[in-house]
Amino acid sequence: MIRLARPGDEVALAALAEALNIEDDEPLGFITAETIKRDFLSANPAGIALVAEGADGAIIGYATALPGYDPTRALRGSYMGDLFVLPAERRRGVVRAVAAETRRRGGVMVLWTSKPGNRGAAAFYRGLGAGSEPLTGWLLDGDAFAKAAGDSE
To answer: Does 153 fall in a domain?
Structure first.
């Protein structure tokens, strides 16, 4: 079963987010139960989190999606920030659930990224019918973000 995350899911979601960071060789320790609660389970969430449950009700996967817009095509939708399902439990319909929730909220597209060398993900996404576009990701954070946002030096 795939459903919207709810209070009480934050510990399992944080553990899966760290598992994704390990798999993608990303920094650890930033995602916690508290940040999940703040960013996805609060009165003013940054976006949505969906969870996949196994037969025993344990959370085996998740996706996060933020409101998105494609200005080239003038399409409202979602940006799927994370997608992770435990390896033995994959292909349960989480991407389709993100698309369905996006449509329920008035959107007509889902955009996401994957690591360039992740051939398994690329094959899976192509199998869904998704196309790819050459993109370069950019991140503005820390001191550079503060400076760009107008903080004094």
So the answer is: no
The domain in which residue 47 lies consists of 2-148
The reply to whether 69 falls in a domain is yes
What's the Cα-to-Cα distance from 117 to each of 14, 27, 64, 82, 125, rounded to whole Å? 25, 18, 22, 17, 14
Residue 116 sits in a domain whose CATH number is: 3.40.630.30
Burial of 6 (0-12, 13-18, 19+ CB in 10 A): exposed
Q: Quick check: is 139 in a domain?
A: yes
pTM of the model: 0.85
> What are the pLDDT digits (tens) for 82-109?
999 999 899 889 999 999 999 999 999 9
Map tokens 């398994």 to a residue. 120
Instruction: Say if residues 62 and 84 touch (Cβ distance below 8 Å).
Output: yes
Query: What are the tokens at 46?
Result: 């940054």
